[in-house]
Design a protein that fits this description.
It is a single chain. The strands form 2 sheets. Strands 7, 8, 9, 10, 11, 12, 13, 14 and 15 form a 9-stranded mixed β-sheet that branches. The chain has a 6-stranded antiparallel β-sheet with strand order 2-1-6-5-3-4. The longest helix is centred in the first third of the chain and has 15 residues. With 278 residues, it is α+β, with helices and mostly antiparallel strands. The protein has 2 domains: 107 residues, D-amino Acid Aminotransferase, Chain A, domain 1 (2-Layer Sandwich), CATH 3.30.470; 160 residues, D-amino Acid Aminotransferase, Chain A, domain 2. It is globular and about 55 Å long. It has 7 helices and 15 strands. The two termini are 37 Å apart.
């Protein structure tokens, strides 16, 4: 069964001249599908379409993405809907075509729920040696070029470690290979500054909105890698997992504390069932 639509037509091939393939010239979204529903679809489309505008990539109307995504997801109990938007085909060379026609790809991928233990006990995290480069022009966007994350994720094998944290060359921690990072210090929530690199995650947005709603103090700041040892709690987020507490980095253990649990309860109330019952 083909679970991909390419410019609205069932298929699994793109042109070799598509700039998404040749230069990573495009954006993507990964959306949780639960019981036929697309979780936070509006937030994902906000980021996708805002990114397209910032990169000057022409994009179809929002309603077209909504219709195609809904059609693919309607019979899925548990999966991931991926949206890819590229600048389209073009000539050789970095210069974008004067009259580019974007390409859109939507695909439904099967999924398996993460182990409950990761939500209850937390996950073990490591620091990656692969650094994340600063690029203010694309900071916050979910662009197709993910080679730094690929290299960082290749640094470990096995299931003992779940995620790796990526820092800039000058020692500021930004994110995980697939997640955003949050710290708790003295009851306040802190998340790294993404002004020059990193992805402004959908679940990051949700967490900050819920923190505001429940009166939890929060701030965005530059976070030195060594300062993580002073945090009272740590957790990571993305749109597929929701929230995972961090229980250990190297020799430093962290509790699954009250702030983390309160935010997991908030996510549960929003229908993110993975976080329920803790």
């Amino acid at each position: 069964m083909n679970n991909w639509l390419i410019d609205g037509v069932a298929g699994d091939r793109i042109a070799v001249t598509d700039r998404g393939f040749t230069y990573g010239d495009g954006l993507f979204e990964t959306i949780a599908v639960r019981e036929g529903q697309l979780r936070f679809l509006d937030y994902h489309l906000d980021r996708l379409l805002n990114g397209a505008e910032q990169l000057n990539i022409s994009a179809p109307e929002r309603n077209l993405f909504v219709a195609e995504a809904g059609e693919l997801a309607k019979n899925s109990d548990y999966g991931t809907l991926k949206i890819i938007l590229t600048r389209g085909t073009g000539q050789r060379g970095y210069s974008p075509p004067d009259q580019a026609t974007s390409s859109r790809l939507l695909g439904l991928l099967p999924g398996v729920a993460p182990a409950r233990k990761k939500y209850i006990d937390g996950i073990v995290v490591r620091h990656c040696s692969t650094s994340i480069g600063r690029s203010p022009a694309t900071a916050g966007l979910k662009t197709l070029g993910r080679l730094e994350q690929v290299l960082a994720r290749a640094e470990w094998k096995g299931e003992t470690i779940t995620e790796g944290l990526m820092s800039t060359a000058d020692g500021y921690v930004i994110c995980g290979t697939m997640s955003n990072l949050f710290l708790v210090r003295h009851g306040a929530l802190v998340t790294p500054n993404l002004a020059t690199c990193g992805i402004n995650g959908v679940m990051r947005r949700v967490i900050l909105e819920r923190a505001e709603r429940i009166g939890l103090q929060w701030r965005v700041e530059d976070v030195l890698r060594e300062s993580l040892t002073d945090a009272d709690e740590l957790f990571v987020t993305n749109s597929l997992i929701g929230l995972w507490p961090v229980c250990r980095i190297a020799d430093r253990a962290y509790p699954v504390g009250a702030v983390t649990r309160s935010l997991m309860a908030e996510l549960t109330d929003m229908g993110i069932s993975e976080c329920a019952g803790l």
